[in-house]
Specification:
- This protein has about 180 residues and is mostly beta strands.
- Helices cover about 10% and strands about 40% of the residues.
- The chain is built from three helices and 13 strands; from the N terminus they run ββββαβββββββββαα.
- The strands form three sheets. Strands 1-2-10-7-12-5 form a six-stranded antiparallel beta sheet, with no helix packed on it. A five-stranded antiparallel beta sheet has the order 9-8-11-6-13, with no helix packed on it. Strands 3-4 form a two-stranded antiparallel sheet.
- The protein is globular.
Amino acid sequence: MKVIDTAIDGVKVIELQRHRDERGWFMERFNARAFKEAGLPHAFVQDNHSFSKPNVLRGLHYQHNPTQGKLVGVLRGAIWDVAVDVRVASPTYSQHVAVELSAENGRLLWVPGGMAHGFCVLGEEEAEVFYKVDSHYNAKGEGGIRWDDPDLGIVWPLSSPIVSEKDAGLPSWNHYARHPVREWK
């Protein structure tokens, strides 16, 4: 396992080792001991699995009470995965990182609490995203920011994504900046 830092403190790309032979390959997707030794979160409370059709974009979502971190990977297809730093006191506040995750490259992305997270499906294939979270879902503690807000400057690799009504109605970055989450519990 190789852990790669990104431009945002706490967001990590994790490259896993595949053991290949004539039958195919085997890979440990998660090992609590290895994650702990690498300084990564290793206590998760729930696994989530989403299916998305081509051209779908989900996000940008965050949860602040309790703060929820996500370990994101792809089982089928490919996604453009984005994390936006929404922690007011962070030196990378309002900045984002984007990484391609796919079934082929086997990468994972650790998105810690304090990030707005979203992804879009790449290519013509459907995508199955599997992610672990480190706290339970709380509808009263969730929030979001519009995926296409020009102030964030995210370059999404698709022109007319399919977005849910809820995501299309998320507030702007400017609204978040005027009313930010001040405490990440």
